[in-house]
Amino acid sequence: MRTTLLSVLLLVTGCGSMVPPECQMLPSAQGGYVLRFTRVGAAAPGCDTATPTETSDIWIFDTLAQSEVRVHAALSMPYTGNEPDPLPAGLIGAGRFTQREVDSAGHCNIDSFTAMSDGSGLSYEMRNLEALGGAATQNAEFKAEVTMTVGACTAEYTVQALSPAVACESDEDCDPFKQPFSSGIFSTFDQGCKTDPWTAPVATFFESSGVCFFNQPYPSLK
Prior knowledge:
Layout (H helix, E strand, L loop, with lengths): L1 H15 L16 E7 L14 E10 L4 E6 L19 E5 L9 E7 L2 E2 L4 E11 L8 E10 L2 E10 L4 E2 L22 E4 L5 H7 L3 E5 L8
Antiparallel strand pairs: 1-2, 1-9, 2-3, 3-4, 4-5, 5-7, 6-7, 7-8, 8-9, 10-12, 11-12
């Protein structure tokens, strides 16, 4: 009887002490995130080209101590390593998770990031990032809002993002169970090979027909 009661107490205590996963963005070593930008409303007069209806980029994130997150727009603000050390001020954005662990809804949130700027008129200000932080998704998908400024043109965008960034020619390239090598994309996501015009910046970088991305708005889950 004593052994049975002790077993029950250990089971209850163990379940009660489970700690939610810690909030961490998938690191740059995972290949970065593909971001799909969708403009909110019409472009300012003369700004349709500078701030298109939809576009894409690859951003890389790294989570540091104290839940701090750094972000860099890898395609639109490239640097080769020949830049001065430290990097030009403003090239890297910084934010912080609002809580260390995934919240009760399974999300990780960052209220805002400092602006990223390449010093030549291009800048991004990201805010209201919400990522799927559960064990099956690990913040590989997020949504956010971004203010994009290109010279004299400024527009508001909604963003949906997927990591890792994977080039594709067909849906087979995006298959998590592809042989002999997986795409690396979590199998819980509803996604496939996209060749729409918005993918052009990323597809051009990869020299591919398209890029693996979601089939549905956030959260695009099976």
